[in-house]
Amino acid sequence: VINTHFDHVGDEARAQSAALLVKKLRQEFDDHPVILTGDFNTLPGTDPYVTMTSPSKEPGRSFQDAKSVSTTDPAGPDSTWCGFESIVPGRRIDFIFVTPGVKVRSHRTLTDRREGRFPSDHLPVKAEVQLPGNQGN
Description:
The chain has three helices and six strands, in the order E-H-E-H-E-H-E-E-E. The protein is an alpha+beta fold. It has a four-stranded mixed sheet with strand order 1-2-4-3. Strands 5-6 form a two-stranded antiparallel ribbon. Strand 1 (2-5), helix 1 (11-29) and strand 2 (35-39) form a beta-alpha-beta unit. Helix 1 (11-29) packs parallel to helix 2.
């Protein structure tokens, strides 16, 4: 399990972060199941997201967006940015990525509040996964 936080300002910084992270993970962990989480500060379809999820010309596995490969319908809003007070539509910038072989049983974006406020400026993302070779929970 690896967690990251990409730059929130620079498009080039995010693009380079995605390329470097994918390269390093392929080099170090290509024969292990990987769960990659974090605040990527980028939207689906952008260059960093495509770098994370597209097959590479270099050896190694690609990553799958856990939401798109969940065996059950994903739950919760299609946004993870809330600025502490209200969910901003279309701002899904927090992801869980998995390598092939990691089965995603469920994916949910949580919207719990306390006294009308979210506990963070981002909504938590939760996935229930099954690692290869593990038939139990």
